[in-house]
Amino acid sequence: MLGVNRELKKLQESGKYIGVGLVGAGQMGRGMISQIASMQGMKVVATADINLESITSAYKHAGIEASDIVAAENKEEADQAISEGKSVALTDASLMSGLDGVEVVVDATGVPEVGASVAISAIENKKHIVMLNVEADITIGYYLYQLAEENGVIYTGSAGDEPGAIMELYDFADALGFDVVALGKGKNNPLNLAANPDSVKEVAKEKGSSPKMIASFQDGTKTMVEMNAVANATGYVPDIPGMHGFSGGVKDLPEIFKLEAEGGKVQNKYIVEYINGVAPGVFIIIASDKEEVNAELKYLSMGPGPNYVLYRPYHLTSLETPLSIAKAYLSGTPTIAPYKGMVAETVTVAKTDLKKGDHLDSIGGYTVYGQVYKYEEAKAQDALPIGLVNSNLVLQRDISKGEIITYADVEGGESSLIWELRRKQDELLKK
């Protein structure tokens, strides 16, 4: 197969393009629309968002003329507009996967319940699905991955998101036969378990981001979720619940990931971890038992060994998502998927003291944060997965700050699609 750029160029020269349907015109979606507008062989033919103005603004910033933007209210209008080369705006995301001109669907909502709906609809309509929704992936991704295979389409996480960037490093080193000791990412802000939309309001305003999103970064939930996705893709596990969160620079990583008995800081090999001090990069730690390989690595200035670090100092989030779209369509290859099943689980922990009758809210909210565990440890505690949290859940007892919330502690999730799919996944895992 040619490089993705050359394959896309060939597609363009043949008069064709990959029709992309995007759900979510927030920060990630807007950037993706503009990036794809600069590419060959690919076009965002339809975008869905509850805010129509967000879509039209994103299209206009991508250089699309107002006369080429069509707000469609049904499938017939949307299909007609796409056939005429227009860019469609939808407020009803349920229409997306049924459109004739859409070949790959991208979920960029970041909301687990919405992601579940988008993914199921895409797969049932025989469309490839790219998830920029790691929260949904760690909750029901294994079920969706299996369902996609049954339907002959690709289910994949996104290039540019940290799990995808880590997976690319892992695949590179694993293919070469290195002993991949650890997989990790940097965290670009101090851990603050109490972070909430009010405490991060000014930071969110400065960055032009949702306060909930910023709070989910600061309280560590996003980091837990991302490394959970890596665990489910590779089989690697957190060394301890919540991971260690060591501090250090890139040059410190080989020593940090030595075992404690060898002067390092970790208890086990084959782990996922985050480091304060290397953001916005991702990394893997490799080793070799071959004398000549170690000699070559030292010659190449990779350090004295026995551990060496492969470090990527950037990840371009949704700007790289088009590469996952292209790989899914052109070669039927996921960037990252939960190949190993449920290896880890991000459990729900009380952010503050909560009372019986209280409603939970959401990731990045006021009531809970996530902490990653080995899956079997979480299961043994009947821990509630963070991706199942929503405002319909009502506590059945008082919960202390820092306490894990269990399935038995809540009521109100039965009508949720993601809860239904999680039950199906649990049944699948029993087989």
From TrEMBL:
Residues 160-321 form the Oxidoreductase DRL-like catalytic domain. InterPro entries: Asp/hSer_DH_NAD-bd (IPR005106), DRL_cat (IPR048423), NAD(P)-bd_dom_sf (IPR036291). Coiled coil: none annotated. PANTHER family: SAF DOMAIN PROTEIN, STRU PROTEIN. This is NAD(P)-dependent oxidoreductase. Signal peptide: none annotated. Pfam families: DRL_cat, NAD_binding_3. GO terms for molecular function: NADP binding; oxidoreductase activity. The lineage of its organism: Bacteria, Bacillati, Bacillota, Bacilli, Bacillales. It comes from Salinicoccus hispanicus. Residues 24-154 form the Aspartate/homoserine dehydrogenase NAD-binding domain.
